[in-house]
Amino acid sequence: MSNQKKSPLKDIRAYKVFAIKEGTVIDHIKAGKALQIIELLKLDSNNKIVTLGMNFPSKALKKKDIIKVEQKELTPEEANKVAILAPQATINIIQDFKVVKKFKVKIPTLVEKLLICPNPKCITNNENMITRFKTNVNKNSVKVHCEYCEKIFDQNEIKNYNI
Amino acid sequence: MPTNLKNKDIISIKELTKTDILNILEKAQKLKQKPQPKLLSGYVLGSCFFEPSTRTRLSFETAMKKLGGSVIGFADPSITSTKKGESLYDSIKIIGQYVDVIAMRHPLEGSARRAAEATDKPIINGGDGANQHPTQTLLDLFTIKECQGKIEGLKIAIVGDLKYGRTTHSLAQALINFNARLYFVAPESLQMPEHICNELKAKKIIFSKHKNIEEIINEVDILYMTRIQGERFPDPMEYERIKNVYILKESMLNNVKKNMRILHPLPRVNEITADVDNTKHAYYFEQAENGLYIRQALLALTLGKL
Ligand SMILES: [Zn+2]
What we know:
The structure holds two protein chains of two kinds.
Chain A: H1 8-18, E1 23-30, H2 34-40, E2 50-58, E3 62-70, H3 76-85, E4 90-95, E5 98-104, E6 110-112, E7 132-138, E8 141-146, E9 152-154
Antiparallel strand pairs in A: 1-3, 1-4, 2-3, 4-5, 6-7, 7-8, 8-9
Chain B: H1 18-33, E1 44-49, H2 54-66, E2 70-74, H3 88-98, E3 101-106, H4 111-118, E4 123-128, H5 134-148, E5 155-159, H6 166-175, E6 181-185, H7 194-202, E7 207-210, E8 222-225, H8 236-242, E9 261-263, H9 284-302
Parallel strand pairs in B: 1-2, 1-3, 3-4, 5-6, 5-8, 6-7, 8-9
Residues 117, 119, 122, 124, 146, 148-149, 151 of chain A line the site of zinc ion.
């Protein structure tokens, strides 16, 4: 993979696949998370064209996924939802083939409903109710803290989402 | 400065400030010295034990009655509608309409917080699975203060199952407030979890890990013993090897500090031999009794009567 880093081929390919006129490109998604993000943002059900790229080489993430949605500008709120699945993601808003806005996602300090607690003995997995997690960002690691069972998990330990 | 715990839920020791804790201990001390048999007359405690625990339940119910209040409730979930599939939320919402305060125990972690969302009446957590059991921690602190005259700056060893024991976690966390020097004595596979150690480090609490009691017994003011359960070991051979290392015998007490006191949340099985009971260092039965005063103080404080 590393010998590809400077390959011009990579840039050309990325450009060709991802050039869009209007819309949003969600870049730097940790490989494997893109499908969940599409589900989470319900991008598959809004009739806009969605392109998904998986396992692109990436310096920071080794492998990354990219999502492109045409004719839709992601709201900051939607962008923050992306953050919990892909804390390193960047959002590019495209108008007339140009990036007019680019920002990193930000993890909300409190995440309601979205995460399913990995602790099988947590009340949230045994009663019909919404979950609540506090988040704690430390460099590249994201920890989530269940407000009910009070257990702390690494973001990677969350396997199931309430989508 | 007294803090106002009226209508507050007592769910997790972590939510109590040092001032709250000292206030609870002080009120418990007063109730121990001077009983108040009419303080809660007319009030009703809902004693909701979704998981049996005779000791904790009797302690809560006696505490309420000693203050002149009355008790309704259940000791066994099989007789409630939970068995029929009713949610905890609904059960507590209904019970909250009958009573003024609820003491509960439940096998699931986070159940007490969930219960608190269902009712405006104060919830006192008597244990939610492996998560929290704040009244135990408060009675531990009360007992430490009683037998040492202070909590601040003591040398405290915690012995036994430190990995899974909620009692030991909560105690260590609570002692952050009191600048304790902590000694964790456990087999390596049952040592204090990293997240607690990190918390202690962040608060600049000095602690060390040890493999046997003898290493530290002559240094400490408090020796807090807990039980090691055989089923915690994936390898039964390992349990056989270590089980005798964590048993406290009278012969080990020859050179301990005069003020050293031994605590244990009880029930004990064999981790403290009976010959220790008659030494001046044994303090675990007094500790168990103190649960009564802590629970009285919490009932009265959450009902706004102290
Ligand atoms: Zn949980």
